[in-house]
Amino acid sequence: MDNFLSAEIANGVSVGEILSVQFLASILGSLLSAVLVLVIGWALAAWLGRRVRNLGHKERFDETLFNFLGAIVRYTILVFTFVFVLNRFGLQTTSVVAALGAAGLAIGLALQGTLSNVAAGVMLIFFRPIKTGDFVVVNGQMGTVKDISLNYTELASIANVQIIIPNSEVWGNTITNYSAYDVRRVEWTFGVGYGANLGTAEKVILDTIMADPRAHAEPEPFIKVTNLNDSSVDFLVRIWCANADAFAFQGDMTRAVKEALDAAGVEIPFPTRTLVHENSAVKDGLRVAGSGGDTAA
């Protein structure tokens, strides 16, 4: 280095010029390396982000989770790239990292409600207790799942009204999922009169329901007398069917069994009340006293 400076000075070049050229070269080299690092970091972040997001097309999980994870991977790489570039220029990155940590803590405290929804959204998407298209009851709300985002779950009610539920209230409450299994058991209660032949009534009810192609013979159907009501003998009936047929099957068979019992002459009772009125004449006057009583039949 000394020989180089001596030679340059001998050629009429000042020391200041030599140092300024070296300084500019050093700055230029640092700038080029920083740009190179930024380009590589940006390309690597974008590539890894896409790779993570593309996993959503191949795995059994919903794409929303992988989009979220892909964004985390991308921005994490960009942050490390930015810190490395600052370090290349001689800046103290320790204070920068500390400032970023403090800012992240402040943001986390300010958005703790939102972040709890995001955390619950990740759990919903990852473990999938519900998915798009399921018919569910969540937090007292019934409807079809239309969307599960990182912040909220969208339902469409039976009347096709939009219902938005924060994910923290979905994950933290009981979920009833009517679409989780392929088959369901449908239940009815049919009442017949006390004078009806129970064997005939049972056969009419069971034959009518099992004649429908939606009824499954396995598992075995259940029909038993389970209650002696005030005005009826009640049969409890449980039949298995495909999940998608459950609601229509239940409604159709309620009407079909009623019509079949009528055709078979089996009485379908309704609550009645018999009034008994007793009159007695009072010997010492014209007043007639009435006493009434009622019984339920």
UniProtKB/TrEMBL annotation:
Which residues are in the Mechanosensitive ion channel transmembrane helices 2/3 domain? 72-112
Q: Which Pfam families match?
A: MS_channel_1st, MS_channel_1st_1, MS_channel_2nd, MS_channel_3rd
What task does this protein carry out? Mechanosensitive channel that participates in the regulation of osmotic pressure changes within the cell, opening in response to stretch forces in the membrane lipid bilayer, without the need for other proteins. Contributes to normal resistance to hypoosmotic shock. Forms an ion channel of 1.0 nanosiemens conductance with a slight preference for anions.
What membrane topology term does the record carry? Multi-pass membrane protein
Q: In this protein, which residues make up the domain named Mechanosensitive ion channel MscS C-terminal?
A: 186-268
Where does the chain cross the membrane?
A: 20-44, 65-86, 98-127
Please give the name of this protein. Small-conductance mechanosensitive channel
Q: Which UniProt keywords apply?
A: Cell inner membrane, Cell membrane, Ion channel, Ion transport, Membrane, Transmembrane, Transmembrane helix, Transport
Q: Using the record's annotation, list all stretches that form the Mechanosensitive ion channel MscS domain.
A: 114-179
Chief subcellular location: membrane
